[in-house]
Design a protein that fits this description.
single chain, mainly alpha, two-stranded antiparallel ribbon, flat, transmembrane helix, Transmembrane protein 208, SND2/TMEM208, endoplasmic reticulum
């Protein structure tokens, strides 16, 4: 018979590991942005096609890359003592469900769009996914609660509690 081991607690990361992973994450997404932009410029040079749409969208992508890079670099930046010891790690950039997850999605989408836009300008339509995703996230966090009301008010009442309340009300009337 095999003994079942109790579920283990999820291991927590140390400060040093968080700082190292943040640095690696920022470098990875910076390199992704730089490579996508360089390949796109190379594609422009080879195909010698520079439409106004391509230039404007490339500038928007580069702005998104720069803004994303600085955002991740600033919130993931650790606070150090004069000796180099870690006081505060900064925000963990690899945490699930955090804002940095959405920022990374922006970098991935813009880099991918830049690369496939070399083939056809119709791929710039993929950039419409950014405001659609932003609207969806806004709806999930704010809009749903505002328009649908408080979910606690609509919670189903337990039958036993309902009967108990009815008995109390009947006693109060008598």
């Amino acid at each position: 018979m095999s003994q079942q081991q109790p579920p283990k607690k999820k291991a927590t990361k140390g400060n040093k590991q968080i700082v190292e992973e943040n640095v690696a994450t920022v470098k990875f997404y910076r390199n992704m942005s730089l490579i996508a932009t360089a390949v796109q410029f190379l594609g422009f040079a080879v195909y010698a096609e520079l439409s106004t749409l391509a230039v404007v969208m490339t500038v928007l992508c580069v702005v998104a890359h720069v803004a994303s890079y600085y955002f991740m670099a600033m919130i993931g930046k650790p606070k150090l003592t004069e000796k180099g010891d870690i006081i505060e790690t900064g925000t963990d950039l690899n945490i699930e469900g955090g804002i940095t997850e959405h920022v990374k999605d922006i970098v991935i989408l813009t880099a991918g769009t830049q690369l496939v836009s070399i083939l056809s300008e119709f791929f710039w339509l993929l950039m419409l996914l950014l405001p659609i995703r932003a609207g969806w996230l806004l709806w999930q966090t704010v809009g749903k609660q505002f328009f649908q009301g408080d979910p606690a008010e609509e919670a189903p009442v337990n039958e036993k509690k309902q009967k108990k309340l009815m008995r109390k009300m009947n006693r109060a009337r008598q």
